[in-house]
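One such given next:
>
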Amino acid sequence: MRVRWMSSVVAVLMVVGTMICGSWSEGADEAAPKSVRIAVVNSLIKELPWNTGLVQALERVSEEKPFGLTVKWDFVENVSNADAQRVMNELAKTGKYDIIWGHDPYPEAVKVLSKKYPDILWVIAGAGNEVIGPNVYWVDEFLHEAGYLCGMIAGMMTKTDVVSVVASYPYPPINL
């Protein structure tokens, strides 16, 4: 239930963020956008719970057409960290996306591409919250809260008074 609710909030925030991006030009009286195109680039498959929640939220928003807004989206899955910048650059070059959502491991690619494509809203899901630019939006995961609870449980369970964590690769939320 919580994933569904959070995914709905994220999808609505993405749409609102796009509307805000549409009003960046100074002095222009622009009408609200009638449609938005979103590309989601993910390192995993969309059948995983978090991704399924996001896909379901995007489908709901597409069906509901809030404020008459037509939402169309594409999901690119199984994109490795090494390929992320290339894949997102190819999507941006098409000129058909208003939002490109780069998942957790892609902030370095977004740093480069957000400057190259300032008219696109770049969304990063994950932690880190480093200020990158005016066209980058972080969707934060509060991993430290769950980590704190896991640490408390581990501390109560240890027989040697030693607790450690091993991460599979360097990643900002883990290295906080």
Observations:
- Helices lie at 2-21, 49-64, 81-94, 107-116, 143-157.
- Strands lie at 35-41, 70-76, 99-102, 121-125, 136-139.
- Residues 2-21 form the longest helix (20 residues).
- The chain has a mean pLDDT of 80.
